[in-house]
Design brief:
This protein is an alpha/beta fold and 222 residues long. It has twelve helices and eight strands. The chain has helices spanning 10-19, 29-35, 39-49, 67-77, 80-83, 95-106, 119-127, 137-142, 147-160, 175-184, 193-199, 203-221, and strands at residues 2-6, 22-26, 55-59, 87-92, 110-116, 132-135, 166-169, 188-191. Strands 1-2-3-4-5-6-7-8 form an eight-stranded parallel beta barrel, surrounded by eight helices. The radius of gyration is 19 Å and the shape is globular. 40% of the residues are buried. The protein binds SN-glycerol-3-phosphate (G3P). SN-glycerol-3-phosphate binds at residues 6, 26, 28, 31, 136, 138-139, 170-171, 173, 190.
Amino acid sequence: MKLFIDSANVVDIKKAYKVGVLSGVTTNPSLVAKEGVKFEDRIEEILKLVPKVESVSAEVTPDAVTAEEMIAQAEELIKINNYDKNITIKLPMTLDGLEACRYLADKGIKTNVTLIFTVNQALLAARAGATYVSPFLGRLDDISEDGVQLVVKIAELFRIHNLDAQIIAASVRHPDHVTRVAMAGAHIATVPFSVIEQISKHPLTDQGLEKFAADWKKAVKG
Ligand code: G3P
């Protein structure tokens, strides 16, 4: 399973990229709004920061409701950074979003259909030519459903029917989500930097390092 960072924060994106574990970046209107910067400028900045990843998702804004409006926005977004091949147009899971997805996919533009909460929605997005589908597991957990089970089922569906779309497990909130979606067959988990930090740590790693350091100090002192 590949790791994307779910962030529009350049400091966090830089940190994750430097570690060398990053295959992509996802953003959404809420994440960009938190940054208080112009959307297109931030996407351009991110594309330049992470040249070696496979995908940077830029979502059409909530003002784009019809397929035509989404396509018009997508056509502006793909021009950013001189038609950077990594830019992926993120579209909402609506009939208009699917129509825009099919149009862009037929033009060879990468797409990510977001806000997926059922297997049927994932099937529709895959059939509309989506490169990526994004089930939001944390938000299903929030309403007392098992978000990871949705990823399990979508992975199974895509295997049975040889569907090419990649699953991006999104709304990932903690380390257990990461392990469980990886084992479920998600192709990608998109996670905040805090989760990348958390999954790098274990108390026994810290204790082990402290012991190595103490033993080393004793040996050097003699
Ligand atoms: O990737 C989707 C993510 O940004 C939403 O996460 O935690 O707001 O449900 P959350």
